[in-house]
Amino acid sequence: MNLISIPAFQDNYIWVLSDEEGRCVIVDPGDAAPVLAAIREHQWQPEAILLTHHHHDHVGGVKELRQHFPGVVVYGPAETQDKGTTVVVKEGDEVNVLGHKFSILATPGHTLGHICFFSFPYLFCGDTLFSGGCGRLFEGTATQMYQSLQKINALPDDTLICCAHEYTLANMKFSLSILPQDKAINDYYHKVNELRAKNQITLPVILKNERKNNLFLRINDIDLIKEIDKETKLQQSEARFAWLRSKKDNF
Ligand SMILES: [Zn+2]
C-alpha cells in the first residue's frame, strides 16, 4: 500500500491509499479538482471514498468524483448522508477496502457524528486528533472529545496518524506557550519549524511520538497539572482537557 497526501484549500490534506494494481481509496475529498489531477497523474482506479464528518472542506468534492467514477463506494457517518455517502457506517462496523479491513471508531467532539477509519497502521482521523493538537469543539463537548482522543490513544504505538490539516506548527507554538521548558515540545517545535520553513508536510505522525509531543494526549502529565494548578485546581482529566482546549481557542 502506498500513502499519498494531496494538498487542498489553505491547509487541508486529502489522503489517498493505493495498492499495487493502482486501485485507490480517497479520504475526505473536500475538493474534486486536485484529486482528479492526481488520479490522472498516477492512473489510479478509485474504489472507495471514506468520509470522517460532514464539513464542506472534507466532503465538497464527493459528488463530482462520483460523476466521474459512478462505481465508487462512499463510506461515511449518518451526518454525511446528504453529502454523497452511499454506505452509512458507525462504531464497530468494518468495511473492506482494497482487500483491507477498516474498522470504524466513533469519535464525537469536533462534530457529533465524527468517525475515524482504522486499518493498521493507518488511522484516518479527520479533524479529531492533529499533530500537537486536536479539533475544535464545534458540536460536541470537551468530555466527548477527551474520550475520543482516549480511544485513539489506545491504538498500537506505531499507528500512523493521518489527520486532515497542516496545523502542526501552530499547535506546537501553543504547546510551547503552556510548557516552555518541556524538552519533547521544544524538540518537536524546532523539527516542525524547519519542515514548514521548507514548505514540507509534517504528517503523518506516529502515535507513540504524538503521546510525547501532543499536550492533548498528556492531560495527566505532572508538569501540565502544575501549570493548570497555578490558575485553578482541577481533579478530573476531562476538566483539565476542557481547560487546555479553551486555552487553545483563545490563543
Ligand atoms: Zn471539520
From TrEMBL:
Residues 11-165 form the Metallo-beta-lactamase domain. Its EC number is 3.1.2.6. Zn(2+) 1 binds at residues 53, 55, 110, 127. The keyword Zinc applies. One of its GO terms (molecular function) is hydroxyacylglutathione hydrolase activity. Zn(2+) 2 binds at residues 57-58, 127, 165. It catalyses: an S-(2-hydroxyacyl)glutathione + H2O = a 2-hydroxy carboxylate + glutathione + H(+). Pathway: Secondary metabolite metabolism; methylglyoxal degradation; (R)-lactate from methylglyoxal: step 2/2. Binds 2 Zn(2+) ions per subunit. CDD domains: hydroxyacylglutathione_hydrolase_MBL-fold. It comes from the Bacteria. Keywords: Hydrolase, Metal-binding, Zinc. Pfam families: HAGH_C, Lactamase_B. Its cofactor is Zn(2+). One of its GO terms (biological process) is methylglyoxal catabolic process to D-lactate via S-lactoyl-glutathione. It is an enzyme of class 3 (hydrolase). InterPro entries: Clx_II_MBL (IPR035680), Glyoxalase_II_hydrolase (IPR050110), HAGH_C (IPR032282), Hydroxyacylglutathione_Hdrlase (IPR017782), Metallo-B-lactamas (IPR001279), RibonucZ/Hydroxyglut_hydro (IPR036866). Monomer. Thiolesterase that catalyzes the hydrolysis of S-D-lactoyl-glutathione to form glutathione and D-lactic acid. Belongs to the metallo-beta-lactamase superfamily. Glyoxalase II family. PANTHER family: HYDROXYACYLGLUTATHIONE HYDROLASE, HYDROXYACYLGLUTATHIONE HYDROLASE GLOB. This is Hydroxyacylglutathione hydrolase. It comes from Yokenella regensburgei. The lineage of its organism: Bacteria, Pseudomonadati, Pseudomonadota, Gammaproteobacteria, Enterobacterales.
